[in-house]
User: Fold these one by one.
Assistant:
Number 1:
Amino acid sequence: MALKKALCRLAAVLLALLVWQAAAACINEEILLVSPLRVLKRLSELVTEKGFFRIVLYTLSRILGGFAAGFALGLALGIAAGRFKLLETLLWPYMITVKSVPVASFIVLAVILLSSSRLSVFISFLMVLPIVYTNVLTGIRNTDKKLLQAAKLYRIKGAKKLLYVHFPQLKPYLISACSVSIGLAWKSGVAAELIAIPDGSLGEMLYNAKVYYAMADLFAWTVVIVAVSVAFEKLFVFALKKLFGAVEKL
């Protein structure tokens, strides 16, 4: 079944590429729509250029930093709010504001207050925090009542209750939060770089491609961003599942 699913997805990707190639051939204007073959060629050139991996690592390190901070704080606040109803009420206006206000508004405000090199970290942090917080809070609230009764019966409290009762129940919620927030962190982080234009960033590369109408570069750098984002998501979710597996064996 897994092999069949993978083959179906591969076939869907190939079909999408064929549609893209056909559309590019029909338009026949690279400035409007560049072909996937031209993008692949340009991508192969970029990978061999000096400084390519430095540019990718620059943006990766900042978005990773913002994601890690948002994940850690969202996890801690979600657990605390799940235990203390008053804290959930106090945090509600802040979380609903972050979730509701357009990311562009935060970027414009933050670009005035922060340096260009820190902007993507802050924006990624803001986008991740409410997603992780909400999912963790929901997971804590939906913990199996029978498990809570058993923990109360056997006087399991504090860290042990969190580790053996709540933590396993949080697994689907945390995995879901990571799957959503990682992609959003990359989108918002690169958008912040596109506005702030820090030297040697992926956002700067997209900005230069836009200024010079280098559509092949624009698409090639976009492919890089998507590939790194997906790889980061897969690795983090894999590590998270391993962590849950190790806890379940304790």
Number 2:
Amino acid sequence: MIFNALIPELSVTDIERTIHFYTEILSFRVEYERPEDRFVFLSLEDNQMMFEQVNGHWSTGELEYPYGRGVNFELTVSDIDTLYRKILDAGITPFREMMTNHYRNGNEMIIQKEFLVQDPDGYLLRFTD
């Protein structure tokens, strides 16, 4: 397994609920876990994320819902339409519904489909194609 140069590790309130959401709804794969530490490493295509149930080791301040205020994680996927349907079929209301956006990169326009959803702890995930 090749590890990305940057892999976010997020504190969560319930590791089992997190694993269920990411694997059963978003189709992430468990790469490895340490149940005794309530830790899991997940991947979806080239996206990698780590999660650990709140334990006080990494706390820089009081956590309250929604976690991760002020940040969104952009995850590029190959089949955004299928993933979006899975979100809707699971009864989850997207934070922002699927749309096509245009972003300027210098003199070039980047056009991408995207939607946003919050995970069980309120972390904002932006899926793009």
Number 3:
Amino acid sequence: MQDIERARRRIKLRDLHILLVVAQRGSMAKAAAELAMSQPAVSRAVSDMEHALGLRLFDRGRGGVEPTLYGRALLRRGVAIFDELTQGLQELEFLADPTVGQLCIGSSESVAAGLLPAVIDRFSRQHPGIRLHVVQTVLGTTHYRELRERSIDLLLGWIPTPFGEEDLTVEHLFGDPRVVVAGRHSRWARKPGVALADLADESWVLPPPETFPGAAAADLFRESGLRVPRVPVATLSIHLCCRLAATGRFVALLPGSILWFGGSDLGLKMIPVKLPRASATSVAMVTLKDRTQTPAAEIFIACVRDVAKSMAEKPRARR
């Protein structure tokens, strides 16, 4: 590679932006259309970068372009550079007016049905000018792509144990044991001392087995010495799960936090079934390690911790 100092003087933010768009679109022509530039100008900008670095950044072909090993390395750093620049501009905006800003939150559906509404309710009352964008994420087999691509600022949800993602930081918020639920008018809702084996022949609503929640549910039954029961409906939709259980024809396994935060509004009742310790899972907040958080994100994170702290005391208070 050519002299780093000389290459650094020649490469500008505009060049990195062009590089990122070309990689995202996989085509010089498509990148040119998005950037409102001519295709020769885009091609020339990429060629000039390759010449300045003395390295080939893209392989060209009839089907478009593909980053080389060198291109992928530079792109990773380029994403971080633009992320830090965006964070800096947002921080300036916040410092100029601390009542405004925006934040993108990733959440598993179970957290979106329990903890998150309580956090947002408190946060939005205190900071109504900060816009929140919430995207649903599926945890377990995910590669946490949204965090790594910096399309979300933080992620809330169940996490597998042990957690082996070295570039991410995990903060455990509270233990969230799963509970067996049925509709308020279900025959099981009126029976004391129900064992999990008593429910073996019931119609269960459980997460799909190939997902992290589904695998955790299967482990729970196996730890109890039972086969996984008949599952006429497999879904990750908490809304569908609650609505079906509320009919009284189905039983379901839910995170306890959903009932603690909104059980009275769902038409559900917890069945007093003793479950193995494996039923306890951890709700956590996941962030990208070494990423500087915006002031808005720091305030939201503090709000999450406050609500989670009160949440951690609820199971003990209700025993």
Number 4:
Amino acid sequence: MTNNLLTCGQLERKLSQKIQAFYRQHLGHQPSKVTCQFFGSKLAIIIENSITSAEQILLDEGKNDLAKKVRSNLDDAIQPELKELIKEVAEVEVVDILSDATLDTGRTGIIVVLSQTPQVRNPESIPKAKN
């Protein structure tokens, strides 16, 4: 069974690729980079260039508040499917997702709280989360 497990790095890369494809498929926008890193039963996700064309148009028109509302509503709308994607890939339950975007830099940060640390081939490579 251990031989079928991914290493921590492989699991992080697989999640990054799946999340990038998820954004492309669901929002019609491909982020330039998605970085995932586990910290015990927590997962940090940084999405570079996460702002959609519609949000960028609103920002260009000076409608920052509306762009923030659009981003917040998009995040809320995709959260259930994002939870399911993470659950399928990491093979653990997702307890909570916290996310925020900085429209000025085009970055989105997501913290995922998992029910337990995912099983990987090299468990010592997952840093322990500080409580």
